[in-house]
Design a protein that fits this description.
The protein is of the alpha+beta class. It has one domain: Sandwich (Jelly Rolls), CATH 2.60.120. It has 4 helices and 13 strands. The strands form 3 sheets. It has a 7-stranded antiparallel sheet. The chain is globular and about 40 Å long.
Length: 210
């Protein structure tokens, strides 16, 4: 399983007081100049409107390595990652001590003003998630996945963190399996680069049963 260096060297990371276990966050993963270059590269990519069954969302996306279509329950091959994503993947490898070759999937997401992403967990075919924020800040919210929420709590517990431009996060463990996350409508144009590992069949079954 991928190992996060933060587990051994927390002083390198900015860990908010209350986030789910397994969520690691660091600011200034890329510089301002690198951020602008990444955005220019993204704007050359052909992005398509996000579709959820019959619903078309405000976000525009592109997938590399592997892709998923809602309703199919399977992932299929997607175009190879462009060079600028491979460079970013190599940097993530050094930071989190995850073999870059295991980050087999990547997505680019464009959030125009007013675009949200609703409560969800990533599909069980994917494992560890690494996300890079570009262009503008956003708030990421967390709540327990419905099958593991405690009825005794009454109101569901919600945690949140402000993802700053140029920051990076890693989501694994409980934050990946036991919590959902969402992003309210953004106030400024924002881009996100998300990289994912593939999950073994045994681990996929465990997440699906959570």
């Amino acid at each position: 399983m991928a190992r996060a260096r933060a587990g051994r060297d927390l002083n390198l990371f900015q860990i908010p007081a209350r986030v789910p276990e397994g969520f690691v966050y660091r600011t200034n993963f890329v510089s301002e100049i690198e951020e602008q270059d990444l955005i220019k590269q993204i704007q050359k990519v052909s992005l398509t409107s996000f579709k959820y069954y019959q619903f078309t969302g405000k976000r525009r996306t592109a997938s590399f390595g592997w892709q998923y279509e809602f309703g199919s329950n399977e992932i299929t091959r997607a175009p190879a990652m462009p060079e600028f994503l491979l460079s970013l993947r190599a940097r993530a490898e050094k930071l989190f001590e995850i073999d870059a070759d295991n980050l087999e999937q990547a997505s680019i997401v464009e959030y125009p003003v007013g675009a949200p992403i609703g409560w969800h967990r990533d599909i069980p075919q994917f494992g560890v998630i690494i996300g890079v924020s570009l262009g503008a800040a956003c708030r990421m919210r967390f709540r327990k996945y419905q099958h593991v929420r405690s009825k005794a709590l009454g109101r569901e517990e919600t945690l949140s963190i402000e993802l700053q431009p140029r920051s990076v996060y890693l989501m694994s463990g409980a934050s990946r399996a036991l919590w959902q996350h969402s992003i309210p409508p953004v106030k400024e144009l924002r881009y996100s680069i998300v990289m994912r590992t593939l999950r073994s069949k045994q681990n996929k079954a465990a997440v699906a049963d959570c």
